[in-house]
């Protein structure tokens, strides 16, 4: 009975006929790629078609280090040419970035796909595959659990980094495969635990010199030694993200970051949280195209000298006395980064002067502009923006002081391009302004009009929601004493947020494309004055609404379909949300049972405990 | 209709439109190697039957996401040896979806196991010297606080 053999079947004894095939293999593989060693470690001959009779020295582990030459056990079937030369499938590149506490993400909000990426395993490990010499599986492997290198590769590459590190300890073959995996790794997402030392990250980074995208979730403090480590280990790095957490402090200073960026010639994207210790920042780079920095405060000097910069996001911490000179910063942005397309600045100190500096900057490619939390932004600012940048696709002036006439200006200038309009926490706008916007902006797909103050403890569940609870200002609530009504009919609107609009008591929506509706904390929305004619609605967020409202929503969702099942199952899920099945109208009604069953069921989920 | 012959002589018929989910078979058909039947010496009858079950289901219920998900979940509820056989077959036949599914299943199974447990499942010998083992363990000790 043959005992367990070393794994995988690397030194494969076979007939002499196998040897010439090995040459064919190596040529047939895509040339030019780096490969591991295919020579037997003991005698130096190529492993393929080779049986090694040199016993291992100094091994005290149980025998069979030398593979037995029983042909039954390990003969390699002469492979048919077609089977072995397949290119390994490229892995799905999941480029997801969790929101850095930004007001919005410049990624397409409309795409519901993004939401699945939140809260997933942070320790994922995905990489491109190296092309490997495929070894044929043995015909009678059943029960022995051996996998050839390529299958082992497929399994191991789906492991999170800690599991992969541990897999290296199983046996030599696994160690070698995992080493190759690390070397081939292009993307690494790592969670660095609170007690980890720099050595941990250093040793992991050392294994993947080909790293192109790095994402670190720091639960321990991070400082310039981390940057040095990254700079040293990852020469080809293009994307770097450093997320912090409640337990970690980011001690990187502006000088250190500036040096890091200047030295890395291929760096195109950098995202960093917790940047409270920067002090000042001068970033010079011709390769950078995306910069996201959050928790900034009191920056003495900010210069971005990045001619290829297309996207910048600066989130300042919500301190009243932040001394950063935003005006100077914005004017210099215009001079040094002429290619900017997306700008996001969140700061309490945003004002009309800053907007004027921005409009003077003449950024011809500007398509997305987001200036949030600036209560001193006024209708005059809107006029300035509208006159300088008439091609905006996204405009976010949440937290500003604009009024309905500002909306009027927006509708005058941007109807042909604007698809996303965010005006949350704007106390001076009314439902007529919103209705006007909906009527005048035919391309609108996303509108956020969360209007009133929210409870600091509640967070909206839609990806639009931000942590507005941090705002300490009390908005003027007098206008909400007279309740308002909102009627929106729009053919393209996909996402609508009326979060916190406690001044609304009636809502009528006729939006055939609407997917997501946020009515959190619409406390005064009256169930009898709610009419939803939105057949594609998939999620409704209704935390903090009246119970009767929830029932009304559900019944309206169901009543659109006079389908075969009259009893639509509705069950309450453990998290409190109700899942209502709304059967989808089969476009080709037929008597065929099978087709009916396969028709997709649309679920409209009402979120109650978000 | 395509005829497939497993390693142990069993014969299976399957529609060409279904069979081309296997890139290997697809290439064979394109290269005209498949006039009478396609021999698959690396896949035994039992495994080939299971693989065909998978590709048939995925061909006919292509749009039924939920149905496929539950089918997949049930499909991988087999013993270890069979699962490995299916992986090997999916690898050989180059059926991406099946390979993804099975490899992910195995990865999920082993990701929380200790090294000894993994060895037991895969029936693998520990071929490290004690020094090598100690070195490997120390290298990443801090990863496993």
Report on the architecture of this protein.
The complex is a heterodimer of chains A (610) and B (145). With 610 residues, chain A is an alpha/beta fold. Chain A contains 16 helices and 23 strands. In chain A, helix 12 (379-388) links the parallel strand 11 and strand 12. The longest helix of chain A is centred in the first third of the chain and has 13 residues, at 172-184. With 145 residues, chain B is mainly alpha-helical. Chain B is built from eight helices and three strands, in the order E-E-H-H-E-H-H-H-H-H-H. In chain B, strand 1 and strand 2 (11-14) form a beta hairpin. Chain B is elongated. Classes of the chains: A alpha/beta (610), B mainly alpha (145). Chains A and B meet through helix 4, helix 5, helix 6 and helix 7 of A and helix 2, helix 4, helix 5, helix 6 and helix 7 of B.
What share of residues are in beta strands of chain A? Answer: 15-25%
Structural class of chain B: mainly alpha
The structure class of chain A reads alpha/beta
The CA-CA distance between the termini of chain B, in Å, is 57 Å
The biggest beta sheet of chain A reads: 18 strands, mixed
Q: For the record, give the distance between the C-alpha atoms at the N and C termini of chain A, rounded to a whole number.
A: 60 Å
How large, in whole angstroms, is the Cα Rg of chain B? 19 Å
pLDDT average of chain B, as an integer? 86
Instruction: Work out the radius of gyration of chain A.
Output: 30 Å
How many DSSP helices of chain B?
A: 8
- Poorly predicted segments of chain A: 1-34, 55-145, 453-480, 561-568, 582-601
What's the pLDDT, averaged over the residues of chain A?
A: 71
């Amino acid at each position: 009975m043959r005992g367990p053999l070393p794994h995988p079947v690397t030194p494969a004894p076979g007939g002499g006929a196998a040897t010439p095939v090995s040459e064919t293999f190596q040529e047939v593989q895509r040339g030019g790629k780096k490969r591991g060693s295919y020579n037997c470690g003991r005698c130096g001959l190529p492993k393929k078609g080779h049986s090694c009779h040199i016993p291992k020295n100094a091994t005290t582990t149980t025998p069979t280090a030398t593979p037995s030459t029983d042909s039954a056990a390990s003969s390699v079937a002469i492979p048919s040419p077609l089977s072995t030369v397949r290119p390994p499938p490229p892995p799905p590149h999941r480029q997801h970035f969790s929101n850095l506490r930004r007001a919005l993400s410049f990624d397409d909000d409309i795409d519901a796909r993004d939401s699945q990426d939140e809260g997933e395993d942070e320790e994922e490990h995905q990489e491109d595959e190296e092309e490997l010499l495929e070894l044929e599986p043995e015909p009678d492997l059943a029960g022995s659990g051996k996998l050839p290198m390529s299958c082992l590769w497929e399994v191991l590459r789906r492991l999170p980094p800690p599991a992969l590190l541990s897999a290296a300890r199983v046996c030599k073959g696994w160690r070698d495969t995992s080493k190759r995996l690390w070397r081939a790794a292009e993307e690494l997402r790592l969670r660095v635990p609170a007690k980890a030392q720099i050595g941990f990250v250093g040793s992991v980074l050392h294994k993947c010199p080909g790293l192109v995208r790095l994402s670190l979730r720091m639960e321990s403090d991070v400082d310039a030694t981390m940057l040095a480590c990254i700079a040293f280990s990852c020469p080809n790095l293009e994307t770097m993200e450093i997320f912090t957490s409640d337990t970690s402090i980011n001690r990187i200073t502006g000088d250190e970051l500036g040096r890091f960026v200047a030295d890395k010639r291929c760096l195109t994207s950098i995202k960093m949280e917790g940047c409270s210790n920067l002090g000042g920042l001068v970033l010079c780079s011709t390769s950078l195209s995306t910069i996201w920095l959050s928790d900034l405060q009191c920056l003495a000097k900010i210069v971005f000298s990045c001619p290829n910069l297309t996207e910048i996001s600066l989130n300042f911490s919500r301190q009243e006395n932040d001394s950063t000179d935003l005006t100077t910063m914005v004017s210099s942005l215009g001079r040094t980064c002429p290619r900017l397309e997306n700008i996001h600045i969140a700061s309490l100190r945003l004002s009309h002067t800053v907007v004027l500096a921005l409009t003077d900057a003449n950024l011809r490619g500007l398509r997305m502009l987001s200036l949030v939390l600036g209560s001193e932004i006024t209708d005059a600012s809107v006029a300035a923006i509208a006159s300088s940048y008439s091609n905006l696709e996204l405009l976010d002036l949440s937290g500003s002081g604009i009024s309905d006439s500002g909306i009027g200006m927006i509708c005058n200038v941007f109807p042909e391009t604007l698809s996303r309009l965010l005006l949350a926490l704007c106390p001076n706008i009314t439902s007529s302004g919103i209705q006007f916007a909906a009527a005048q902006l035919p391309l609108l797909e996303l509108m956020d009009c969360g209007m009133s103050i929210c409870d600091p403890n509640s967070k909206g569940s839609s990806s639009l929601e931000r942590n507005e609870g941090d705002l300490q200002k009390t908005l003027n609530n007098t206008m909400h004493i007279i309740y308002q009504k909102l009627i929106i009919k729009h053919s393209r609107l996909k996402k609508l947020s009326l979060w916190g609009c406690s001044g609304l008591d009636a809502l009528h929506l006729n939006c055939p494309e609407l997917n997501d509706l946020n009515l959190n904390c619409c406390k005064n929305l009256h169930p009898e004055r709610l009419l939803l004619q939105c057949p594609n609605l998939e999620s409704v967020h209704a935390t903090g609404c009246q119970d009767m409202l929830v029932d009304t929503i559900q019944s309206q969702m169901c009543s659109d379909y006079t389908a075969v099942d009259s009893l639509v199952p509705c069950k309450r899920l453990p998290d409190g949300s109700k899942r209502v099945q709304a059967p989808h109208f089969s476009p080709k009604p037929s008597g065929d049972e099978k087709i009916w069953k396969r028709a997709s069921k649309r679920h409209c989920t009402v979120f109650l405990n978000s | 209709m395509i005829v497939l012959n497993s390693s142990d002589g069993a014969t299976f018929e399957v529609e060409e439109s279904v069979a081309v989910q296997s890139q290997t078979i697809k290439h064979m058909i394109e290269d005209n190697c498949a006039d009478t039947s396609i021999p698959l010496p690396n896949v035994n009858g039992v495994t080939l039957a299971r693989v065909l079950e998978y590709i048939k289901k995925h061909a006919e219920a292509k749009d039924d996401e939920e149905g496929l998900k539950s089918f997949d979940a049930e499909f991988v509820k087999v013993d270890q040896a069979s699962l490995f056989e299916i992986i090997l077959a999916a690898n050989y036949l180059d059926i991406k979806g099946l390979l993804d599914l099975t490899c992910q299943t195995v990865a999920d199974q082993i990701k929380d196991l200790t090294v000894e447990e993994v060895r037991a499942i895969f029936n693998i010998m520990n071929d490290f010297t004690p020094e090598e083992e100690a070195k490997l363990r120390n290298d990443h000790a801090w990863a496993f606080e």
